[in-house]
């Protein structure tokens, strides 16, 4: 099967946009990702998928913690920055929850400690046990067929 066909098919699944953050040796690191889902209520677990070539893989292995930051509609530039789509150097100011860096003004900051990990093809799945959550109101940033978007509020039928 052709790689492009597979990628195009996966792009037909509309997702939210997250930035995964962690800290190693006093330095915050982040990467944009849409491979995220909840796993369990008891214990409260989520999973993220990190490519074997991503710098974030070793950072999470070193720190043992990460945060999933669900981006708001107005945070497309934040996503682009952590996806490497903005090449100019920019300073990013982080908030902190339980000493883990998080993205300011995200719809949700979900702080996790690594519960387990599993190699899967060219990615590693990190299952995180949720330690803390901060929520904000707003509309989510979305991604579909290779493009950013947002959900508009539907009127009752």
Automatic annotation (TrEMBL):
Keywords: Oxidoreductase. Transmembrane segments: none annotated. Residues 10-150 form the Flavin reductase like domain. It holds the Pfam family Flavin_Reduct. It comes from the Bacteria. SMART domains: Flavin_Reduct. The keyword Oxidoreductase applies. This is Flavin reductase family protein. It comes from Bacillus lumedeiriae.
């Amino acid at each position: 099967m052709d790689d492009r066909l597979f990628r195009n098919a996966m792009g037909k699944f509309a997702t939210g946009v997250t930035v995964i953050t962690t800290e190693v040796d006093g330095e915050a690191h982040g990467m944009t990702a849409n491979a995220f889902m909840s796993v369990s209520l008891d214990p409260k677990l989520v999973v993220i998928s990190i490519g074997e070539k991503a710098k974030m893989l070793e950072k999470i292995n070193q720190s043992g913690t990460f945060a999933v930051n669900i981006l708001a509609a107005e945070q497309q530039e934040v996503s682009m920055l952590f996806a490497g789509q903005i090449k100019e150097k920019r300073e990013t100011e982080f908030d902190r929850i339980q000493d883990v860096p998080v993205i300011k003004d995200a719809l949700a900051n979900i702080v996790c400690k690594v519960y387990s990990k599993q190699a899967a093809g060219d990615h590693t799945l990190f299952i995180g046990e949720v330690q803390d959550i901060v929520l904000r109101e707003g509309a989510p940033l979305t991604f579909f067929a290779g493009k950013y978007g947002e959900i508009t509020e539907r009127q009752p039928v």
